[in-house]
Amino acid sequence: MSDEKREEPGGVNVEGGDVTVGGDVAGRDAVKTTTTTTIVGFSPKDVQRLIITVGVIVFVTAGIFFSGGLAVGFVALRELNRTVNSDNPPAAARFESALAHLRALPPGQSFIFEFTEEEISSYFRLSLAPQIGVTDGRVRLLDKSSQLVVGGQASDWGNLPFAATFELQDTPGAPLRLTSAAIQVLQLKDKDNKNLPFGWVFLPTPLLQPLASNLNNLFGNVQLTSVAAPAPQTWTVSGVAR
User: Do 54 and 146 share a domain, yes or no?
Assistant: First the structure.
């Protein structure tokens, strides 16, 4: 074999080098032979770099599984990857109109706000996401819970995919509470070119607090009292203006 530059899958280039191993081999008491073998492969520097690279990959990919603070989880990531029409301008307009109505309510006025996943996801992608440096914005309502997951590619994070889960709460002026956040540092695709739920590492939630503040500001000073899911991917939220 000759020295050459080999490109490994995943875009990692590993350069070969010479490793020389020498030693004495004794056949009999009266015969002593010295053999030197040259192996073309990894130099000590290459091996050290490879070990560090593998260690980093293992660390970041294990973060999603072993970090107790990360509640994004496989369910939220799977749902975020689910196909929904988020490029629907009329749906986005309906959601924006409903938000404007909420912000205009007088204090003490109760309300019922019903919206679909397509409406909130279209509004986020087409209206809000471009203003905060997010591309491919998506929102998914999580089944049997008062949680939703927001995702996309954030310019603040080198256009890496991110995911953030929010839980509805009854705090006046802050109906959405950021519960967890993660970015995908190792991107793997399936046969349909969709992101697989691997290679994610958690983020401290304060790093995505500006996103949470932007979302809460959309609702104005309201207090939520209940949330129900009368139909698949549909929420009915009740509350009162403060």
Answer: no
